[in-house]
Amino acid sequence: SLYLYEPGSYAPLARVDEKEGEVENKVYYFHTDQIGTPLEMTDAEGQIVWQAKYRPWGAVEKLVVNEVEQNLRFQGQYFDVETGLHYNTFRYYDPEIGRFITQDPIGLAGGVNLYQYAPNPIRWTDALGWACELFRGVSANHPAIDDARKGIAKPAKADSTITPSEHNYGAVSDVSPYTSWTRDLEIAKWWANKDGPGGVILGTPTGAPKPGDNWHWELSPDDWGESELLLKGVRSKLEVFNPNEL
Fold first, then answer.
1. Edge-first strand listing for the sheet containing 48-54
2. Rounded Cα distance, 187 and 17, in Å
3. Which are the contacts of 130, defined by CB distance < 8 A and separation ≥ 6?
4. Adjacency order of strands within the sheet including 200-205
5. Tens digits of pLDDT across the chain (246 residues)
């Protein structure tokens, strides 16, 4: 089968099946949810040939219509009939427990939980099996709010010699070369709403910078239980969210 996807994603649009001895190929069309998971597949006449209901972490609860085999699941995942697992490019995912069965191939750069899929399965996807989201809550009165609303994370003083421990202890954010991020969405929401309406949450998948990027992650002593990671350098084109819509 040949699969066609939405540009820049693993959300399927159509599937073309070629069978030996048949003159014309069969074309099927996918109908997905908000994160690109197939809910239905229709044929060229618009008839439903496959339809499924899912559990929260991607296991099929019920095949409502199963006239044509269809094994795509969460973005980037392919259902393995023999094992019941989902092949997720770089590792296998178990939809019954919502976890990968092998460790993250990028190690701790993906977070301290080496088996986590994503913080929220109705919002986030992990098409390659190595992404996890990090968040930064920026309140309405924060000095960096204007940049944050444009999807930019910029430290107060990029050339500062402040250490991660000093940043984590507090009272140096106005002279720090770091911006604070967390793996806990609820913590980011708290910071975004700290000064009332107008704050935002920045989001980005974890992972190492690409060659030529002028930023990197640094581990922070988690003295305050905030699941914190520090970003040194400037990043742009980050996702921007209203904290009350997550």
1. 2-5, 12-17, 26-32, 38-42, 48-54, 60-66
2. 47
3. 90, 91, 104, 105, 106, 110, 207
4. 215-219, 228-233, 178-182, 133-138, 200-205, 239-241
5. 999 998 878 899 999 998 877 788 999 999 999 889 999 999 999 999 999 999 999 999 999 999 999 999 999 899 999 999 999 888 999 999 999 998 877 666 556 677 878 766 666 666 665 556 789 999 999 999 999 999 999 999 999 999 988 888 888 888 999 999 987 788 899 999 999 999 999 998 777 788 888 999 887 766 666 668 899 999 999 999 999 887
Q: Are strands 48-54 and 178-182 parallel, antiparallel or unpaired?
A: unpaired
Contacts 24+ apart (CB under 8 A), 11-14: 11/35, 11/36, 11/75, 12/36, 12/38, 12/72
Closest listed residue to residue 44, CA positions, set 17, 70, 78 = 17
Q: How many CB atoms lie within 10 A of CB 14?
A: 14
What's the rounded Cα separation, in Å, for the pair 112 and 119?
13
Distance CA 97, CA 99 (A): 6
* Backbone φ, ψ for residue 169 (5° rounding): -70, -30
Q: What residues contact 219, with CB distance under 8 A and at least 6 apart? A: 108, 164, 229, 230
> Token pair 């975004």 is at which residue?
192
Domains of the chain by range and CATH? Answer: 2-106 (no CATH), 133-245 (3.90.210.10)
Rounded distance between C-alpha atoms, residue 177 and residue 185, angstroms: 23
The pTM of the whole model exceeds 0.90:
no
Using the CB atoms, write b or e for 47-76: b if 16+ within 10 Å.
Answer: eebbbbebeebbbeeeeeeeeeebebbbbb
